[in-house]
Amino acid sequence: MSLNIIEAPESDYLYTETSQIKNAGTGLFTAIDIFEEEIVALFKGEIINNQEAEKRALLNEDRYFVNLLDGSIMDSMHTDCFAKYANDAEGLMESSFKNNAIITLDDDNNVCIKAIRNIDAGEEIFCSYGKPYWKKHAN
């Protein structure tokens, strides 16, 4: 068992409400203190191939894509998943906030959000989406 796992269902300590970043929509918040290196939330979603991904991208339905190591894509758009609500504080918008988490893999190779510093109860969780995301979704 990994020491950086919070031993509670995500719904016990995570919640969503309007993001503190202007026009960012819904944000992800924590009801408990989270420590540096702890796994905050796991991404869940439909695994799709490149052809399906291209179809969805043409319909502008690719904002919740996560590229997986095997080349497939996870789409969280229509899946209940707290991780998809973490906004990027350092994306295109001017924001006084800084990212406090990263998108990475846990010990079992699940895509997750991991804290890069201690995050206090009540804080919004932010993580970088990467330059390619913002290049595509800059409009």
From TrEMBL:
A UniProt-annotated Pfam family: SET
Domain of life: Bacteria
Listed Gene3D superfamilies: SET domain
Xref: PROSITE patterns: SET
InterPro entries, per database record: SET_dom, SET_dom_sf
Residue span, SET domain: 10-130
Stored SUPFAM superfamilies: SET domain
Protein name per Swiss-Prot or TrEMBL: SET domain-containing protein-lysine N-methyltransferase
